[in-house]
Design goal:
The structure is a single chain. The protein is about 45% helix and about 0% strand. It has one domain (about 5-45): Aminopeptidase. It has two helices and no strands. It is mainly α. Keywords: Transferase.
Length: about 55
Amino acid sequence: MGIASHLCVAAFSHAQRHSMLVRPTCSYVAETFLPRNPNWSTFVHKEELKSSM
């Protein structure tokens, strides 16, 4: 597991401990980490981000 994965696990663990949801705005989280670790998808905020444009 690389540094990015360790950082993601720490962030998702923090969210889990504090009953929070994560909004993955980083492509690594959305496209690599979550597909490889679907157990963390429970803590993903499902509402789509609205563009400010």
